[in-house]
Amino acid sequence: MSDSFDADLYHIQNIRWNEEFSAVPGLANLEDRFGFNSNYLLISALFSFRFLFGEAVYTLQSLLFLLIMLWVVYNIIASKKNVPYLLLLFFLIIILMGGETFLDNSSTDSVSLLCIFYYISKTALKPAWLHRQPLLAILLPITMVTYKLSSIIFCLICLYVLYYLVKQKRYKVIGFTVVFSFLLMSFWFTRNVIVSGYLIYPLNQIDLFNVDWKVPQAVAVLQQTHIYNFARFMFFRYYDFDMVMQDLNGTRIEQLYRLFNVFIHLLIVLSPLWFIYSYFKGMRIHRGVYQIYLVSVLSIIFGLITAPDFRFINGFVFGCSFLILYTIVVSLPIGFSLSLGARRILLAAFALVFAFVVFKEKRLLVSYTYDNHKEQFFSFIYKPMPFARKMEVDIVYDARKVGNLTIYTTREVNGRTYDFLPSTNPMGLPEYPFEGYKIQHIETIDSRGETLQDGFKTKPMFVDSLNRNIEIYKDQYIRFYKQAQPYPL
Question: Does the model's pTM come out above 0.85?
Answer without folding.
Answer: yes
